[in-house]
Structures are given as C-alpha cells and as structure tokens.
Prior knowledge:
The structure is a single chain. With about 475 residues, the protein is mainly beta. It has no helices and 52 strands. Strand 2 (about 55) and strand 3 form a beta hairpin. The chain is flat, with a radius of gyration of 24 Å.
Amino acid sequence: MKSAHLITLAIALILALSCAASTPTPTPVPGKVVSAKRIVQIDPSSLIPESFMVSPDSRRVAYAARVDSKWFVVLDGKKGKQYDGIGAGTLTFSPDSQRLAYVAGTGNKQFVVVDGKKGKQYDAIGLGTLIFSPDSQRLAYAAQVSDKWLVVVDGGEEKQYDGIGAGSFVFSPDSQRLAYVAGTGNKQFVVVDGKEGRQYDDIGLRTLIFSPDSQRLAYAAQVGDKWLVVVDGKEEKQCDGIGAGSFVFSPDSQRLAYLAVVSDKWLVVVDGEEGKQYDDIWAGTLTFSPDSQRVAYIGREGDKEVVVVDGEEERQYDGEGAKALTFSPDNQRLAYTARVNSKEVVVVDGQEEKQYDDIGIGTLTFSPDSQRLAYLARVDNKWFAVVDREEGKQYYVIGADTLTFSPDSQHLAYLAVVGDKWVVVVDREEGEQYDEIFARWGGGIIFDSPDSLHYLALRGNSVYLVEEKVR
C-alpha cells in the first residue's frame, strides 16, 4: 500500500503487570447523603492496570487479567472465559453501556468476543477498528485473512482488500450506515454501505464524517500533489492540504466547514466558500453555533491571534493564548481564551474577565440554560474553578475534562486532588476521598437528576459505585 496509515496493524497480546493495595470501608461525608456500594473486588496479582475500562454511564467496569499463562476479562467482578491472550486496548463498551467487546487470541488466531460469545477466528484483528454503532446494536471491525483484509459487520464479511484504514471506521448517527477507508494496489477509496467510491491516491486521516442526520458524507482525498474535499460524492476545489480532523457539519446537517492550506496559508472553507487566509488556524476551534447559523474559529496572523465570527474579525490578541472557543446552548453567547500581557483571560460576550497565569485547555463550559460559565484557571502552581467569575478553592490538580453542570444548571461538579487522594467537588464542597475516581477513565460524573449524581471510585482493591445527594 502507498500510505503507511492504511496498512491495518495486527493487535499485539498484552503482557501482565501488577499492583497492590488495601481495602478499607468508605465512610459518609457529613452534610451529604452518600451511598457507596462495592461492585468489584480486584485481585491485584492478576490485574492488567492499563486495560481498566469504565462504561459510559459510570456504573460498570471491565479489565483484563492473567493467571499463569491464561488471560481473561473481568466484567463487573465476574470472570470471563480464558484465552491465550487479550488484545491491548481493545476492551470496548457499547454507548448504552450494556455490551462489551474485545479481541482475544488462541494459538496463532485472533477473534472478537462480544457479550461473552466468541466470534470467527482470523489471522489478525485490525488495531483500532473495533467499534459499536451509536444505538449499540451493531458491531464492526477489520480482520486479516492471509495477506488480505476485510470488514466484519454484524457478523457478516464484506469484500477483501489489500488494506483497511486503521481508525477510519465510522457509523452514521442513526446507526444504519457504515463507512471506512480501503485500498487496493496503490489506490485508496471510501466504502459506504459496502459500495466503493472513487479511487484516489490517498484518503485523509480523520476526515471521514457523516452529517448529524446521517444523509451526508464528507472526506478529504489526494489527487497527485493536491487535496480536495468530497461531499455527497462531489469534489470541491483543490488545494495544497486539508486539516486532519477539522471537518465540522452544522447541527442541521446543511452546512460543512473545514480547514484548508493554500500556498502555506490556512483558511476556512464554509459551504464551499473560502475565508481569509491566515498563518495558522487553531485546530479544534472551528465550530458552528447550535442553531447552525453562525460559525467561528481562531486564526493567527504574525504574532497576533484573532477570533473570527461569521467571517468578521473581532479584537486581536497576543499569540498562543487563544486555545478554545465555544458557543452557549442558546446560540446567544460566545466564550474563548486569549493572551493579554503574558497572562491568559476568558472573553465572554466580548468582555474580558480576570487575567490568570493559565486557563485550562478545553475547560470552557456553559451551563445547559446558557446563563452560567465555568472554567479552570491557574495562579502560580495552584488550579481552581471559576464559576460566574467567582474563584473556588485552590488545588494542585483538577480533572481538566470533568467540569459538569447539573441538568437544571444550579450545581457544578468536578474532580480535584487533596493530598494524594481524589475527591468530587460539588458547589465547592468536597466529597469522600478515594485513591482514584474514574471520571478520567472513560466514565464521568453523572447527574441522575438536578440534585443527585453518581460516579465510580477506587479505594484499595475495591471499586465503589458512589451516589451523592446534592444539598
């Protein structure tokens, strides 16, 4: 194959590691109603720590373990069937948290185990290809047969190819369609619902994307030394490069935006129309408003950065301070970070808030009602949450991706470290301390109602389902 990223790699079988800890019993926190139910007792002599996975609903745990020469998966404390090996990093929960799939091996063959049932054996299973559909009903992955690769979807095999694009698998939001990149000889193409698209010299990594309504598909393709975007099977204007992972469909599926390179300059293309060229455009800042009417991003020109909204430039700031940008759920508010006099500041509705040494990347969080804004800030070596311009308690460590508002927007929860322990902080009140809280491991802090939440936590060798009543 021409491009190294297209050659699907076989999954290596992981080696055993170990850890040790004790098992005390949790005690309730004064002033809160706390239920801590132990759901798993871990055997540290067999646990493979890097395999530990938490379900999306933060109620289930799974991990790989080894005893002597045999490997098995433990789901919610129950041991599965033993195999010669378990695929590193392959444990995958379905979006609804009810199903678990992983790659296992016996002898020189590999196969997928889903819902505890062993699938067909193959020479190898493609690394990073195991994926559930959004509705959790379908499962797809790439498998090797001799020197060829094919896609297995819902247990059925599709056509064989020289290679399958690792990481290219994508189900449509309605779960009815599957697309991936395949290759034959020195050409690559997109396969949608089993049908091959036009062949190109290369297909861009992390560009394959369905629209929210599942009706449209877009990706980047290379022709000679040029790149172009294919939308609904139609080619757009060629350019010198396309930003990997930059594709964004509007929420109503009618509009598409992406980053392009023209003569070493970056620009945004929206609905096929090119915007102003910049020296750089911050990856991940290109976004549509929830109503699909507005589009914004952050560009750099020389040593200055500028926020661009609907093609119009707002105030310029010092370089490398603008790292995040987000619209409020009601479309009316816009927040982003900027650098002023070697400090960082959050700008909300065009107004600058207090300056800090640092603002946490990706922590800008609007409440569901759009009235409140929270983010993490740092002064010296201490971090704290800023909510409605008010600073919370300082900590050495706060979980960057854990800021969570309650459904009614009245409460804010996040993770922090106290000493060498983790706690959930709700409205500035610290909960019970644990060795680990798995909001950073694939789960999260989940509000079950406006005044109750739950999460998974580790103390010693025991995993607890912790439920808190917010007062």
